[in-house]
Each structure stands twice: as C-alpha cells, then as structure tokens.
Amino acid sequence: MQMSILAISVRRPWAWAIFDLPDLLWKCIENRDWRTEYRGPVLIHVSRTCTNTEYNEAVFAILRATAELGRTSLPVIPPLLRMQHGGIVGAVDITDCFEDGLHPWRNHMRYGFKLTNRRKCPFVACRGQERFFRPSNEVLEQLRINR
Q1: Does 59 map to a domain?
Q2: Alpha-carbon distance 75 to 126, whole Å?
Q3: Does 1 fall in a domain?
Q4: What is the mean pLDDT of residues 86-112?
Q5: Number of structural domains in the chain
Q6: HSE, side-chain direction, 13 A CA sphere, residue 19
Q7: How far apart are CA 67 and CA 57, in angstroms?
Q8: Per-residue pLDDT at 98 exceeds 50
Q9: How far is CA 52 from each of CA 8, 14, 55, 119, rounded to the nearest angstrom?
Q10: Residues 33-42, buried b or exposed e (16+ Cβ, 10 A)?
Q11: How much of the chain exceeds pLDDT 90, in percent?
C-alpha cells in the first residue's frame, strides 16, 4: 500500500523551538488561523521567508514562553542567517486542534495544533507551500519514507 505523508511550513526560529529546546520546554503547539481535522504524522518544513522583525519577535516570544515553562537559563537561539531553511527538518504528530486554552506557546492565532512525538531528521531541501502539502517522491526517498 502506498502512503503519502503531509508536511507543514514553519518559519525560523519556530522550527528550532520545536526540535532543539529541551523536552519540558519545546514548542508543542503550532498556531494557525485555520482549523484541521487531521491527526497523525506531519513533516516540518522550514520556510525560506522570515524578516528580521519576524525573527526578533519570535525570539522574544520563545524567551517568554520558556520562562513561563520554568527554564532556568537562557536558550542559545541561533542567528537568523545561520538557521537552515527551505527544507524538511523533522516530523511531529498532530494529536489535537483546539481554540481555547492558556498555554505559553499559544498566540493570537485562532487555532492551536497539539504536537507530540517530535523526531528531528537530517535536512532535506524541499519547496514549501501554504497549509498542508505533500512533498515530492524524491524528497520522501531522501527521507526514506514509504510513499
């Protein structure tokens, strides 16, 4: 049976917060203006677009969220230009989509996707899209995922 996994684009440094923060601090909620009924694995694509202003706002949000979650030292967030972008960096499972709830990773967007089971992988270049998308067979082969 052939299967195709979905992917979703996330801006820098949010993808870093998903995969590189310690277990108790990692970004376990992805915020969107649209709802999803999808539950299951999704690849995380790091989009190419991110302005300096967006990056700086995200860094402050990451510092605020991790402080609320009890971090004891400042995370070392790589500079914008050193972060990988334009490709897949890992996978997570989406287990819920909700509108309410107070959590340090929630923001002004209407919906929060609950992320679990993060799995970082070697970077694989890939063109992203808005909303969910299906990476090409070539990308899936590089990731060694059954299509």
Answers
A1: yes
A2: 28
A3: no
A4: 93
A5: 1
A6: 23
A7: 15
A8: yes
A9: 22, 14, 5, 27
A10: eeebeeeebb
A11: 88
